[in-house]
Design brief:
The protein is of the alpha/beta class. It contains 13 helices and 20 strands. It has a six-stranded mixed β-sheet with strand order 6-7-5-8-9-10, with helices on both faces. Strands 13-14-12-15-16-17 form a six-stranded mixed β-sheet, with helices on both faces. The longest helix has 16 residues. The two termini are 33 Å apart.
């Protein structure tokens, strides 16, 4: 599959695999016979053309385990060890994790939510205080708490302060002595008995030592049903995207009605994607706050590199992307790159112009012209003007999201599609090139989410004609808020003899 970028910014997809050509088994040049052959080829490859199902997993309430501790004791490393993959961002500096971030995990057949938290610090102020507040919320939402202590350093005053918070919560606590890499370190871990939380469980999150025994003990304490909620089905998933400091976290907090994620004037506060169940328009939605991408992934470094990867992964798991753009400033290259990323990923798209309360008259005068000039590629996307700070027009997000999701899931019956294509080709045939005039013999919608079409043709369709077909598809069937993918299968006449 290759990407075809047109001069006016549209992105179409052309099938460039070994199966690009299909063999016309008919002995006639009759259009009906060739269309029948194309239909047969489509059915052979894609099955029944109008019967597609999307498997949706059931939602369940499962236990939640919160991993807490002071900064740089290895909480995120332990989370990655339990998950069996590098999900939480880890760097050898304190304070990389800032929000409470939940992951679905499993051990010995038991499902549970694993909640990573930022480092808890006593009497912290500023952003450190906000991070500590998030950790305290995680404790109150958990069914079991894993309290991680650096065994090589021992219990510090800050650790003792965490113990007092844990005792007030009344949640079962497991003391985890991390960085016990060998038998000699076990003597240091034994000193943690003095914390009054029972036997410390010795582990090395980095090397995996003792992690299995720890999980066996944790699973025994889990209730059958907890406070965590799986994300396999149910509410629609919305990814919040935008460049740093555009207001994604502020918007999520405003929608949630609480300080769900850390917000600071310093750009790049959010690192890990943060999921939150939001009630909006009388319905529940999964909103995912993502890290603002400053530059291309290959050009990023450190935790910024992994944050970019997590943002891409969050977009892949979402159904619709809500891209925030700073309305008070001219659109940047980064804004346009994010919009292209959504189109390439094939997700539904809604554009929200944030910070509308900061708009002055001069800026409003130029904004509409800027939109027409810069957003040629995604002129089909719904646009909403909002203010995350004041909550202005947030109620307009639901109709825009619904409209985009309807377009994303739209499916056209094969008979209606081919009737439309026949009329289109008759009224506007492809230009003659090199003495030949390619024709569309048959079309089918191979999938939705996003809408993907296969056109069986007698020759290669130029990019301008494919853009024309896409435009007419939108005019006829809607497809608001969704990219459209058009694949070509070019006829190869059967050789006789």
């Amino acid at each position: 599959m290759i990407q075809d970028d047109s001069p006016d910014g549209d992105i179409l997809w052309i099938d460039d695999t070994d199966n690009t050509a299909w063999v016309d088994e008919s002995d006639s040049d009759d259009a009906t016979a060739m269309a029948d052959a194309a239909r047969a080829a489509a059915i052979a490859e894609f099955g029944e053309l109008e019967e597609f199902t999307d498997d949706v997993a059931d939602e369940r309430l499962i236990p939640t385990i919160a991993v807490v501790g002071r900064p740089n004791v290895g909480k995120s490393t332990l989370v990655n060890r339990i998950l069996g993959r590098r999900e939480a961002i880890v760097e050898d500096v304190p304070g990389v994790t800032r929000d409470r971030v939940s992951y679905e995990a499993q051990w010995n057949g038991r499902d549970f939510m694993l909640m990573d938290t930022g480092g808890w610090q006593k009497d912290a102020r500023g952003i450190a205080g906000l991070i500590a507040a998030q950790a305290e919320r995680a404790i109150n939402e958990a069914d079991v708490v894993m309290f991680v202590v650096d065994a090589t350093v021992g219990a510090l005053n800050e650790d003792e302060a965490v113990v007092r918070v844990l005792r007030k919560s009344g949640v079962p606590v497991i003391l985890v002595a991390n960085k016990v890499d060998d038998a000699r370190s076990e003597a240091d871990a034994a000193a943690l008995w003095s914390m009054g939380l029972g036997e410390p469980h010795n582990v090395s999150a980095l090397h995996g030592r003792g992690s299995g025994d720890l999980l066996d003990h944790v699973v025994e304490l889990l209730p059958e049903e907890g406070q965590g909620r799986t994300r396999g089905g149910g509410p629609r998933r919305v990814a919040l995207l935008g460049k740093p400091n555009v207001g994604k976290s502020s918007l999520l907090n405003k929608l949630a009605g609480e300080a769900r994620v850390v917000v600071d004037s310093v750009a790049g506060t959010t690192v890990d994607p943060v999921d939150e169940l939001i009630v909006l328009g009388g319905r529940e939605w999964w909103f995912v706050d993502t890290a603002g991408i400053r530059r291309r992934v290959k050009e990023a470094s450190g935790h910024e590199y992994y944050a970019s990867l997590r943002t891409h992964a969050a977009l892949e798991k979402s159904e619709v992307a809500l891209v925030l753009v700073d309305a008070s400033e001219p659109m940047s290259e980064q804004d346009l790159r994010l919009l292209s990323l959504v189109v390439e990923t094939g997700r539904a798209l809604v554009i929200a112009y944030n910070k509308w309360d900061l708009m002055d008259e001069d800026r409003q005068l130029y904004l509409e012209k800027e939109i027409e000039r810069e957003l040629v590629q995604v002129r089909w996307a719904p646009r909403v003007n909002v203010s995350a700070l004041t909550g202005r027009h947030l109620q307009r997000l639901v109709p825009a999201l619904d409209e985009a999701l309807v377009g994303w899931e739209t499916r056209i019956p094969t008979s209606r599609l081919n009737s439309f294509l026949s009329e289109l080709v008759a009224a506007h045939p492809h230009p003659v090139r090199g003495g030949k005039q390619p024709r569309i013999l048959f079309g089918t919608q191979a999938g939705s989410r996003p809408p993907t079409f296969i056109l069986f043709t007698t020759g290669f369709l130029e990019a301008s004609y494919r853009r024309f077909v896409e435009r007419r598809l939108r005019e006829e069937f809607g497809f608001v808020g969704t990219p459209i993918r058009i694949n070509l299968r070019i006829r190869e006449k059967r050789r006789r003899g």
